[in-house]
Amino acid sequence: GNSVTQMEGPVTLSEEAFLTINCTYTATGYPSLFWYVQYPGEGLQLLLKATKADDKGSNKGFEATYRKETTSFHLEKGSVQVSDSAVYFCALMSNYGGSQGNLIFGKGTKLSVKP
Amino acid sequence: NAGVTQTPKFQVLKTGQSMTLQCAQDMNHNSMYWYRQDPGMGLRLIYYSASEGTTDKGEVPNGYNVSRLNKREFSLRLESAAPSQTSVYFCASSVNRGRGLFFGSGTQLSVL
Q1: Residues A26, A91, B92, CA angle at the centre, nearest 5°?
Q2: Quick one: how far is CA B25 from the chain centroid?
Q3: Residue among A35, A105, A109, A110 with most chain B CBs within 10 A, to mutate
Q4: pLDDT (tens digit per residue) in B61-112
Q5: What chain A residue is nearest to B10 in terms of C-alpha separation?
Q6: Which DSSP symbol is given to B63?
Q7: Which residue of A has its CA nearest to B98?
């Protein structure tokens, strides 16, 4: 079945450090891929997305590239800020079969950025 | 701009009690969803409604029922709460199935 695997947290970085959160997926066909962010006490917000191979999603300094050859969608940011502290979820949306149109989430990676 | 509104924000139940979680969206979205979030498990889909008048089971539907009351509202009912249903529940909506989701702020439910 379809699944998403993302790196275990928590991840603790100093302000202005480089961030990578790894995400790989298993899916039939060509899913759409997403990163969502959850700030403390809030619901999830869409951060960025990519709908086909080699697409790069970007938003608020975050980027992720859809790599079909490695089935990956790693999240990166060149210089993190304290305000980026949150839980980040990788997700896929299958475009095939019974689960078509439903989002499948990874377990989340908690990021803490220290001043 | 309210977006997706969930009530209540917090609830404590005793085992066997029933309750309904309410969700309403004001974005004229066709599709609505209920997820639960558990530590180390990510979000898991309970039920969804692709459009008004339809509902379907997700990954973890047992112990829950849903009602798509109209285009705006999608409620989740626990008929006989169990401790395993202690979780944070999120409602979400999207323009159509297959599009990005907008989430509510969640309901933290504890079943003792």
Answers
A1: 140
A2: 12
A3: A105
A4: 999 999 998 999 999 999 999 999 999 999 999 887 667 789 999 999 999 9
A5: A41
A6: T
A7: A101
